Amino acid sequence: MRIAEISSPDIRHQSDHHERLLSQLESLIIQAENQNHSPETLSTLSSDLRQTLSRLSQLAPFSNNNSLKLRIWKLSYRLWNSCVDLSNSASVSRSSGFSKESVAGLRHVASDLLSLAADVSGVPSPAVKSASFYHKTGLIWHDLKKFDLASTCFERATEIVSKLDITRISDSGEKKLLLDINIARSRAAWEVLDRNLAITLLNRAKKSLLFGSFEHHKSLASQYLVFAKSVLSKNNEASSLNEALKLMNEALDLCEKGQAEARTREETLELKELQSKTLRFISAVHLQKGEYESVIKCVRVLREGGFGGGGDHHASLPVLAMKAWLGLGRYGEAERELRGMVAIKGIPEGIWVSAVEAYFQAAGTAAGAETATDVFLGLLGRCHVSAKAAVRVAHRVVGDGEDVNEGAAKLRTKVVAELASDERVQALFASDAAAKERTAMHAVLWNCASNHFRLKDYETSAEIFEKSMLYLPCDMENRVLRAKSFRVLCLCYLGLSQLDRAQEYIIEAEKLEPNIASAFLKFKIYLQKNDQNGAIEQILAMKMCLDFTPDFLSLSAHEAVACRALPVAVASLSNLLNFYTSKTAMPTTEVVVLRTLVTILTQEPDNESEVLKYCKRTHARASELGPDCFFGKEEVGRRELNWFAATSWNFGTKCGKEMKYELCIEFLRLASEFYGVLIDGKVEENSIMVCKSLILTVSAMIASENQKQTSLVDTELKQAVELLDRAAKILTSLSSGTMEPDLLFMYTFNACDIHGRINNSEAQLHLVKRFASSKACNPKHLLQLGLTALQGPRSSPQVATFALNECLSALLSSPLPDYENVALTVRKLVAVSSVHKGDTDDDAVHSMYKQAYRIMVGLKEGEYPSEEGKWLAMTAWNRGAVPVRLGQVDLAKKWMNVGLELAKQVAGMETYRECMEDFITSFEKKCHEFKHKITGQSKPQLVA
């Protein structure tokens, strides 16, 4: 019987299972060896391989079946080699249809498959080879930034080699692999921010994995340095700097120990170079920590060849030393280091530019700017200097425009101006390849000039703007920029009041780019030169520009007002008004422009006619568009409307005071229209203003008539009547508490005058009676109405009599009567009674004298005007002369007795009284003697 026939059924079953799984693996690997894969098929293949491997792993270990393990080993290598082929084809053909991650997944399967085979008889160092597979796969995952998968591979490799007796490993390659696995695992831990594990792994390698090898010392020192640089690149805090310094010291220590293991001069030099590099980084860390003395010590050690050889002359050492001297405040040593860089031929541009920037930033603006520029210009002949470097230096010299010290800022600007104007520097920007840097240099200079312009340092600003134009080619592409530069130079010289030079620049700008900006600047120059006619003509030229917008007229008006060129401002705004009839988008509302125009016109005398013109335009446009649309709605519109109403009113009253009655009439009529729009039934103040405007308009018409010594024509009388009728309606609607006394009197006075012209005495009398019955009435108003009614060819005795009688009654009813006005009223009443009623109506006249007598009785001496008292006494006595001659004894006695009674009440008429008494006695005696016979003798006349 054969052995196979007597074997256990389970063993046979297991063997068949192994065979089936290995066949599946081999089939899948054959597919992998086929180079034509899509991303989907490769991903599926990797998944299938992983599943098959998982099932095979469940049957492990295969300790008694070396042939099986050898077969697995071969399959692993076939899969690995297919991955190598896939990677090679992908590197040759960039358009491969699969990703690196898919290939890395297959490598990972190959590594796991090789690890499953474990130790295979006949294969040297199988564990090392398995670890190598994991190491290489982990490196690929690490490059793909799949740090979790990379860590898994490195940890699996570490687990495999940890079972080896490293003391028995003699192959240098295997020893290096042990170190590389440890370093790779440390790098992966560092990437996932497990820094403690990363450092621990490096320290572990330092203790047990160096094997006395120069190369191992160098690799481990390099990794310490890489970690230190990583710390510096991500954080500059004190703790991070200390950590980086610790790592660099470890690297430095490894370099020192590794030199003892070096076998050749080249190996020694490699470690010394790494040692110098590390010390330079240590010096940089000390610089960041502000430990400037330590920096100087490190640099001195490097230069003096402390590590053997001829010393380190790396280009970074002058920079480190210079920055350390600057930190110590020893600017002389720092400047020597900086100037010493000029002697280092071929120094990298980035290093010396960085040094120049650092020195200038720390050394201040005085010597710093000049030294930085001198070094830059000195390096032009020795080093490769690019336009980009020139831009950096210029930008550093200019700074950020935040100098508090004005002198320092000017010195910076002076230095950069010298730098920019140097022909050698300009030559750096001459080629087409330096177009970008040329633009950058222009921007640096432009911004510098702009900062000085904002500070109103126009002289410095103009100089730098001129230097910036050196970096603008004279071609069509830069035509607009050159025009812009000319315009800004024009502004600078405008600020310096060098108007001719400013005009030269703007002419040049207009040649390059004729636009509204250039036209507007020419307008400013005309204003500065006080050439108002030229400025007004330039306004018309501005309107012809293709890019003209109405905003420039508004801006021109502001400029003109600032220059006190008010006619120019008026011209600008007048032209602006013309655009409101079209559908052009406007910078402000029409009412604001009109208000501004009127305001400007009010600032100079004798502009009333122009003010009236624009006020009339305002009213016309408001009537055309509607008040809400023109003035605005709600409170905004009310304020605008009220402003024009108040302005019209103020100008109307002003013109009235100045006796410019024609203008007064127009302004007050406009005021009534504006205030009329404001009437809303709630605010009586506006109604009162309408009424006052109407009444004063009529007053101005009457005053104008008197001034011109002409009579109002029928149309003007008709207008006056209409205005007064409107005022009467408003007066009727006003409540008694808000009515101004003078307003009602003024209306009554004007209405009486106008109605008198059309012979409407009934209306006059009605007006006076209504006024007399109002609360606004006072004796002075009545007296004035009465006196006015007596004047001129259109006198009205009926109105005068009523007004004077009412006046007399009001005066006498006062607690303290004004006897001056009482006397005047009495005299006028006597006159009107005498003239208009005639001498035949003696009773009316006699009653006035008797009333005067009753008024005078009981008054203190001097209360009633003595002259008026004398006049009454004399005129009453003299009225008896005619009856005496005619023999009318009773009538003569009546008047002589009144005259005597009045004379007795007036001081200073004693002599007159005696004469009067004697005459009366003599007259009565003669009358008795002749018994009603009248003689021809007449009494002597007494003249007042």
TrEMBL record:
<keyword id="KW-0469">Meiosis</keyword>
<dbReference type="GO" id="GO:0051321">
    <property type="term" value="P:meiotic cell cycle"/>
</dbReference>
<protein>
    <recommendedName>
        <fullName>Protein ZIP4 homolog</fullName>
    </recommendedName>
</protein>
<dbReference type="GO" id="GO:0090173">
    <property type="term" value="P:regulation of synaptonemal complex assembly"/>
</dbReference>
<dbReference type="InterPro" id="IPR039057">
    <property type="entry name" value="Spo22/ZIP4"/>
</dbReference>
<dbReference type="InterPro" id="IPR013940">
    <property type="entry name" value="Spo22/ZIP4/TEX11"/>
</dbReference>
<dbReference type="InterPro" id="IPR019734">
    <property type="entry name" value="TPR_rpt"/>
</dbReference>
<dbReference type="InterPro" id="IPR011990">
    <property type="entry name" value="TPR-like_helical_dom_sf"/>
</dbReference>
<dbReference type="Pfam" id="PF08631">
    <property type="entry name" value="SPO22"/>
</dbReference>
